[in-house]
Amino acid sequence: MNPIFMAQWMKEKRSPIMILAFCGLSILATLLFGTGSDSKMQIGVFPAEGAGDTAAEEWLDLLNKGDAVEFVMQDELQAHSEVREGRADAALQLMENDYRIIAAIDNPNVQLVEQQVHTVFVEELQLRAAEAYKKDTSAFRTEVETYLKHPPITVQSQTTEGSQLIKYNMSLQLLFTFTLFLVMFTIGFKINSITMEKVSGIWSRVILSPVRKSEMYMGHLMYSAMIGFAQIAAVFLLFRYAFGFNLGDQFGMLLLIAAMYSMTIVALSMLLTGMVRTPEQFNAVFPSVIPIMPLLSGAYMPPGTITNEFLLTISELFPLKHALDAMIDIAIYNAGWPDVFLSVAKLCMIGVICMGIGINLMERRRV
Amino acid sequence: MLEAMELRKVFKGRTAVDDVSLFLDQGESVGLLGPNGAGKSTTISMISSLLTPNSGDVRLNGVSIVSKPQFIRQVLGVVPQEIALYEELSAYENLKFFGSIYRLKGKQLEAKIQELLEMVGLRDRQKELIKTYSGGMKRRINIAAALLHDPQIVIMDEPTVGIDPQSRNHILETVRLLNREKGTTVLYTSHYMEEVEQLCSRVYIMDHGRIIASGTTEELRRILSGEDTLLLKLDKPNKDLANVLRSLAPIRHVEETDNGLKLIIAKHSSLLSQIVQTAESHQVEIINIHVHTPSLEDVFLHLTGRTLRD
Ligand SMILES: Nc1ncnc2c1ncn2[C@@H]1O[C@H](COP(=O)(O)OP(=O)(O)O)[C@@H](O)[C@H]1O
Ligand SMILES: [Mg+2]
User: Yes or no: is domain B2-221 CATH 3.40.50.300?
Assistant: First the structure.
């Protein structure tokens, strides 16, 4: 085994506090902010002006027969303000024979609500139309219900992109965000030990030995990527088996994305170490730059919240965004490799570019 | 064996090392003496292939190591000025690491580690973490870490800076052992002239990036024109005595000190009985007389007008 790698591992064993602390923080943050939003989505409902309250109540009963979304009567003004302030994804205005969805953004949850409401209305209005030709309306309803238990055709609703409409899982997104965010610190601080070894003179000692420079970098880079990956994997495993989170059916794929992400963050850290002069500078700059990434790319908010073109363009530069996109697609939408190809490709490209520039900067700075 | 020729290094327009030439013969122990900032570390870095000179060359047995650094790296051990060790690991683990980068392993490595720990006197504390060590103990491990691969040439950059006397003695003893018993060629850098005088047969004195004097310690002392310094300790001060002594021909300089007089006299002049008689005639008792032979410190003072520790 590469002695450089081994030395890093020995140091880690001596003081594993940092990595344990970041694992703990990932777990804590997810449990703190991620759970609770996992309960049924609540959508405020209010009758339109002129529409009768009883008609609205009837629709409400029908709507609540589905189980993904919970519809509750609400005051119109309050429903509007909750949507405006982002506390609710959408609100629903009921008319006699029609409805309107009020939403500030277009995210998978809004699509889900839209789909459910649409189905209920179409079915019910068709039934009512058919009822008009029957004498015994309740017998007719029972007949239809029995018939629909074994329908001749089944219809599946899909989003415009073609994926099945599935309830969005915000706590899973937060789990990914916190884990991917905090692992940046672990990896960054590990990469910083290269500069620390250069300052302390250890690097020069190894340069004088038969160990090649490429082996020296490899030892450090592999170690940092490995420890970062181990941190992500540990948190995911814990959530899957200890907290019973549903991480989808493709856990292996998730881990692969985690491995690629770790390597990209190694590259990003190399770029940042290459740009500063001392390890102390890195310790000051790195923790102030990193938190911007999840914020700007909207990783803490439901997808679709950020609409600003500028922010969207900027977040394309952040590895976190692409890894998060891929992980969400895999875990929530059961996506395959072709579906996440673009995210993975961008992730790898950022990695290659950062590493190239980073190593160059680092080597040039040494006179 | 190892030869530096007209080395020059410029950092951002400032010349740190200027036209430095020096050589080491096999088995020699050579000192590089100079105050802080003289350019010693920079010179050493160039000799050990860590830094490329702006001009000049370093040759090992005639082969330029500027273009073939691996040629010197195999036979070289460098003790850096800073403590280049993993603070979080024990002394034993550090030595194991620095041995493994030289492809040493197994019993051979283990035996070498124990031999070196014995040599620097820290065998019984090898399991303790470096960060819990005193400065002197760290320095001793810092030296041991450079010796695991039995280098033929050892370069030490101020290995005794800021340490306790016990550690210092250990280190000086180690260097002597390496050089006299193992035949290792040593280049020893310091700004303590006593150490260099004790350990080295030849000395280069450096200041402001240049070699200002070189030779054996004897040769260097002879730079000081044949003069001796006499320190007289008297029972009481006496102005007349100083004036009378000043008028004696071989005495070049008389200076009153706290408890007596300092005289600078021409070498080999037998003035002692004359001085004693003169003192008696002034009813002054001489408590003792100390003949002070010039040290490298005095040589440096003579050459630069400053002391080494300025
Ligand atoms: N990497 C460097 N960059 C800029 N200046 C340097 C560098 N290394 C040394 N110097 C300068 O070169 C001079 C000689 O330094 P050094 O060789 O460390 O002296 P010494 O070891 O004798 O104390 C000093 O003025 C120092 O500031
Ligand atoms: Mg120095």
Answer: yes
So where are chain A's domains?
A: 2-35+169-364, 41-149
ipTM of the complex: 0.79
Q: How far is the CA of A199 from the centre of ligand 1 (A)?
A: 14
Banded pLDDT at B310 (limits 50, 70, 90)? low
Helix (H, G, I), strand (E, B) or coil at B27: coil
Q: Are B92 and B128 a contacting pair, CB within 8 Å?
A: no
> Tell me: the pLDDT tens digits for A313-324?
888 999 999 999
Which residues fall within 8 angstroms of residue B215, CB to CB, at 6 or more apart?
B202, B203
Contact B103 A15 (CB under 8 A): no
A318 φ/ψ angles, rounded to the nearest 5 degrees: -95, 125
Nearest atom in ligand 1 to the alpha carbon of residue B206 is 22
Q: Whose CA is nearest to atom 2 of ligand 1?
A: B11
What is d(CA A125, CA A137) in angstroms, rounded to the nearest whole number? 14
Per-residue model confidence (pLDDT) at position A159: 58
Quick check: CB of B16 below 6 Å from ligand 1? yes
CB contact under 8 A, A3 and B83: no
CATH architecture of structural domain A41-149: 3-Layer(aba) Sandwich (3.40)
- In angstroms, the Cα distances linking A45 to A69, A275, B82, B243 are 12, 54, 72, 115
Domain B226-293 in CATH 3.30.70.980: yes
- Which one of the ligands is nearest to B36 CA? 1
Residue B37, ligand 1, Cβ within 6 A: yes
Q: What is the pTM of this model?
A: 0.77
Q: How far apart are CA A115 and CA A167, in angstroms?
A: 11
B30 CB less than 6 Å from ligand 1?
no
Residue spans in chain B of domains classed CATH 3.30.70.980: 226-293
pLDDT in tens, A18-28: 889 988 888 88
For B142-188, how does the pLDDT look when each residue is reduced to its tens digit (9 = 90+)?
999 999 999 999 999 999 988 888 888 889 999 999 999 899 999 99
Calpha distance A147→A141 (Å, rounded): 10
Q: For residue B5, name the pLDDT band (cuts at 50, 70, 90).
A: very high
Mean pLDDT to the nearest integer, B97-114? 94
Q: Do A208 and B49 touch (CB under 8 A)?
A: yes
